[in-house]
Design a protein that fits this description.
Helix content: 25-40%
Oligomer: single chain
Radius of gyration: 15 Å
Structural class: alpha+beta
């Protein structure tokens, strides 16, 4: 669903898909992130809601605020808590600077660990 902002010059509409794409790209640019995680629940959510859900990213966009949930795979031997904090900061800054929305929360769920030499073959771990 596209949310809209009423401004002096007219309306601005930012769709959930746009916020999801920005968040996903910012996540993949964060050091220590191997990939985004999809999973079965995402497939069911896509079928039931009819929405085009960005892999590993779920967003709720209001008129002025957004909440973001990320499911990730981290690289082995990286401090997970530091990677997740950096991820939250990168995603928040990217979404806020590109959309003007205030990001109220960035929730991170670490669903796996990958070795640097591993190729992520499992379809649920492959990043788009």
């Amino acid at each position: 669903m596209a949310e809209q902002l009423q401004l002096d010059n007219g309306l601005i509409r930012i769709s959930d898909d746009v916020v999801s794409k920005i968040a996903g790209m910012a996540a993949l640019e964060t050091p220590g992130i191997a990939a985004m995680s999809g999973g079965l629940s995402e497939g069911w959510a896509k079928r039931l809601s009819g929405k085009n859900v960005q892999k590993g990213v779920t967003v709720e966009v209001g008129q002025l605020e957004a909440a973001i949930d990320l499911r990730i795979i981290v690289l082995y031997e990286t401090p997970i808590h530091e990677v997740c904090r950096m991820l939250q900061q990168n995603v928040r800054e990217a979404v806020e600077s590109m959309t003007g929305l205030r990001v109220v929360e960035v929730n991170v769920k670490v669903e796996g660990v990958a070795f640097k030499d591993d190729e992520i073959d499992d379809a649920s771990y492959r990043a788009k």
